[in-house]
Amino acid sequence: MIAETDGEPYLVIVDDSEEDAELTTRVLKSEKLIKSVVHFSDGAAALDYFFSTSFRRLPVLMLLDLDMPKVGGLEVLRKIKQDELKKHIPIVIMSSCGDDNVVRESYSLGVNGFVRKHVQFERFKQEMLCVGDFWLRTNYYPGNPNQTDQ
Is the pLDDT of residue 6 over 90? Predict the structure, then answer.
């Protein structure tokens, strides 16, 4: 699903779990960390978007699942980080995977963070808030509406 971002900073979620994507969106929007979210339910759709001729603006953050249909998260990560313009997109993998070899490979491909998804609602919510607070409020990016010069 591609939502119009109207020039606002926007977040991309690439996750085949509609429930996780919806929960993440609700949590981040309820805390006013982001207004615009674009969700893709598989890696192929995300790559089609990022490498289409109509692609215009980098998102402020991508939350990326690993195990997805069509194209997996590591391949999405590899292709984004190999592109000269898109390699600057901060990417955080959100996955239930706990395999240290996969985590190492993710970092070697240029991931900016790796967070284990938990099935317990409160823990999942807290993780999303921590990730969102850092990447969407604390981390500096041009045009960040959550930062003021004080």
Answer: no
